[in-house]
Amino acid sequence: MNLLFGYxxxxxxxxxxxxxxxxxxxxxxxxxxxxxxxxxxxxLLRMEESSLIGNLNWISGFPANxxxxxxxxxxxxxxxxxGSNAAITTRHYIDxxxxxxxxxxxxxxxxxxxxxxxxxxxxxxxxxxxxxTIGKYCFVGTASILLGGxxxxxxxxxxxxxxxxxxxxxxxxxxAGNPASPVKSLSQDMAYFRRAKGxxx
Length: 201
Ligand SMILES: CC(C)(COP(=O)(O)OP(=O)(O)OC[C@H]1O[C@@H](n2cnc3c(N)ncnc32)[C@H](O)[C@@H]1OP(=O)(O)O)[C@@H](O)C(=O)NCCC(=O)NCCS
What we know:
The chain has strands at residues 2-4, 7-9, 14-15, 19-21, 24-27, 32-33, 38-40, 44-47, 52-53, 58-60, 79-82, 87-90, 93-95, 100-102, 107-111, 114-116, 118-121, 126-129, 132-134, 139-140, 145-147, 151-152, 156-158, 163-164, 173-176, 181-185. With 201 residues, the chain is an all-beta fold.
């Protein structure tokens, strides 16, 4: 493990022409960040083995320990954690004002999805944030919106252009629509759910 600016970067990890400046960066073996990706304002970016962030992603968060906003949220964690073999493809917007966890072997696929952990709380008229959790072996379809507090269970698919605003719990399910709802159960035998390598050729 190389220690650079306090960052823990495995010698086989790679970063292209990108601006990556979280407070703490941990990159496991064969993890990869492509070109023209920006990552700023995070307390932690952790990428486990063979995880990937592609080109042209915008990953930002309102920093911790800044009392101008979110002062009522003690313990808020501006972080992005990718499990092993997880992938965020290209041109996505990931707001990590609160924790975003992407489970192992999950793909945030296509382009232009938005993961938004913060919003204005209209009842209180103040900024508020909640975590987003995506389980393992999930597939998030292109151009989807995931709001703070939402959760996609392990082994599930979010259909293209869906809006996830709840924490669902049932695994092996297709969720889709605006707002997303359970559409149909999925076979546990689907090859995507059983792969041993993240990248799909
Ligand atoms: C979800 C998806 C994978 C299709 O899965 P599938 O198992 O083949 O499901 P089906 O096409 O049989 O659809 C099942 C039902 O869900 C509905 N559905 C599927 N995708 C949907 C979506 N994105 N939004 C709303 N409803 C959707 C279908 O209309 C169908 O409804 P019906 O039973 O009333 O006719 C596909 O629709 C999708 O969204 N793909 C994502 C593509 C993408 O993001 N590509 C990025 C590059 S890798």
